[in-house]
């Protein structure tokens, strides 16, 4: 069966997208870009995790419960599933989402020993992400050493931001060390811009803010079709208040914590990234739990109020950076699925032409702006895995073109 599939060109690209306690994966048809399977393993490191699979028709299989101690256990579970379904999923390449690659690694690239060594040196930039991402890569490299492995960086979308939006007002030696505002969620922003280009003409003339709202939340300002400004900085902890991340802080607050408490920088990192944000205010970072407990929970109301108020402030700031605003896009788990959050953010922003339509917003339609709104407000699903698959496919096509050119050259000689 495998031989027949190889002859008919039925090959697929595996995409891996790891989070703090979850691992998303998808299998895309190499030729058509059609998603064959998608899945997610949740609860990694918790007493009981789950693996959920969805086929190309959108039908989910039964949840499989298992104890996943770490990212390697989750990776092994996916490898086991791939082997069991080998006749349906002949993998020709694997694409990975990486949060951070430093100043030297932003565009998608083939994973080599040199890249892995470079990324090890950059763990300090993303200590809550890169270690697990590297473990994931190494697990699949050991199992699929003959395949092409491609790294896709979340920072790529923001690489062309102008200097005033990229660099901090710090001594030049820090800039030389790679300290800058990298920005994140770039694969999500890239997907949204691809979809907008498909649906609208002259999108490169629009001034756009994309709000990627989820457990990790950020916004990006887009001008001339490119990333112009963003809320996150050198790490995914900056910018907006998030589920368990603090967002922007006065540097004096960090000095205060370090001076007044017996705490190491590593312990502070954990506190700012895993014990802060909505969790610090409401006792939970889960937005669904917060929304469901608003009536009788003042802490939940305080957390939601802060989250939406900060989002409102960042929209105003990014609009000023752009010099105007034509479109506001909501995406991400919260941005796409929470009418309450969208309405709270947009309410009171009539002064800058942002006016939401209550009924359209409740119906979760794509366009939710009021007929009198000068700014178009959209709700869009994002798909980081698709972007990774397409970048990975580009490397495969490049190899095929080179092989074809080589054959032609040999024929002439």
Describe it.
The chain is globular. Helix 2 (71-84) packs parallel to helix 4, helix 7 packs across helix 16 (384-412) and helix 12 packs across helix 14. Strand 3 and strand 4 form a beta hairpin. The protein is built from 16 helices and 13 strands. The protein is 41% helix and 18% strand. 38% of the residues are buried. The chain is α/β, with parallel strands linked by helices and 413 residues long.
Give me a quick take on this structure:
This protein is 41% helix and 18% strand. The strands form 2 sheets. An 8-stranded mixed beta sheet has the order 5-4-3-2-1-6-8-7, with helices on both faces. A 5-stranded mixed beta sheet has the order 11-10-9-12-13, sandwiched between helices.
- Which strands sit side by side, in order, in the main sheet? 5-4-3-2-1-6-8-7
Nearest-integer average pLDDT: 92
Number of helices: 16
Total count of domains? 2
Extended strand count: 13
Query: Could you estimate the helical fraction of the residues in percent?
Result: 40-55%
SSE sequence, one letter per element: HEEEEEHEEHHEHHHEEEHHHHHEHHHEH
Q: What topology does this entry show?
A:
Blueprint: H1 2-7, E1 12-18, E2 22-29, E3 35-42, E4 49-55, E5 64-66, H2 71-84, E6 91-98, E7 109-110, H3 113-121, H4 130-143, E8 148-153, H5 163-166, H6 172-176, H7 186-199, E9 208-212, E10 218-223, E11 226-230, H8 251-260, H9 265-274, H10 277-282, H11 287-292, H12 298-322, E12 327-331, H13 332-337, H14 339-346, H15 358-362, E13 376-379, H16 384-412
Parallel strand pairs: 1-6, 6-8, 9-12, 12-13
Antiparallel strand pairs: 1-2, 2-3, 3-4, 4-5, 7-8, 9-10, 10-11
């Amino acid at each position: 069966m495998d031989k027949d599939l190889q002859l008919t060109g039925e090959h697929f690209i595996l995409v891996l997208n790891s989070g703090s306690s979850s691992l998303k994966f998808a299998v895309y048809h190499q030729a058509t870009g059609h998603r064959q399977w998608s899945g997610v393993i949740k609860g990694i490191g918790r007493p009981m995790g789950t693996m959920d699979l969805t086929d190309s028709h959108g039908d989910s299989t039964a949840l499989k419960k298992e104890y996943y101690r770490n990212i390697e256990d989750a990776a092994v579970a996916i490898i086991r599933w791939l082997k069991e379904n080998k006749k349906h999923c002949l993998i020709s390449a694997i694409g990975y989402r990486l949060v951070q690659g430093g100043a030297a690694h932003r565009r998608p690239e083939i994973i080599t020993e040199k890249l892995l060594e470079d990324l090890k040196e950059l763990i300090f930039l993303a200590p809550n992400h890169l270690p697990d991402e590297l473990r994931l890569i190494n697990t699949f490299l050991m199992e699929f050493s003959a395949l092409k492995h491609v790294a896709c960086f979340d920072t790529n979308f923001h690489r062309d931001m102008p200097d005033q939006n990229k660099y901090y007002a710090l001594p030049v030696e820090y800039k030389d060390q790679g300290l800058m505002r990298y920005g994140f969620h770039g694969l999500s922003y890239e997907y949204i811009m691809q979809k907008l280009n498909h649906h609208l003409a002259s999108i490169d003339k629009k001034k756009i803010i994309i709000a990627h709202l989820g457990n990790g939340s950020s916004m990006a300002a887009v001008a001339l079709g490119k990333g112009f400004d963003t809320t996150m900085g050198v790490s995914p902890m900056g910018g907006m208040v998030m589920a368990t991340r603090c967002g922007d802080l006065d540097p004096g607050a960090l000095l205060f914590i370090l001076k007044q408490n017996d705490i190491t920088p590593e312990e502070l990192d954990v506190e700012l990234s895993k014990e802060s944000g909505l969790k610090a205010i409401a006792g939970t970072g889960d937005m669904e739990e917060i929304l469901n407990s608003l009536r009788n929970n003042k802490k939940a109301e305080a957390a939601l109020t802060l989250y939406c108020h900060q989002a409102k402030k960042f929209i105003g700031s990014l609009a000023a950076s752009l010099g105007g605003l034509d479109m506001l896009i909501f995406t991400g788990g919260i941005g796409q699925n929470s009418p309450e959050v969208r309405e709270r953010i947009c309410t009171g922003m009539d002064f800058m032409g942002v006016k939401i339509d209550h009924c359209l917003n409740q119906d979760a339609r794509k366009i939710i702006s009021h007929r009198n709104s000068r700014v178009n407000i959209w709700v869009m699903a994002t798909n980081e895995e698709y972007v990774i698959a397409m970048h990975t496919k580009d490397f495969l096509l490049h190899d095929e073109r080179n092989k074809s050119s080589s054959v032609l050259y040999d024929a002439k000689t």
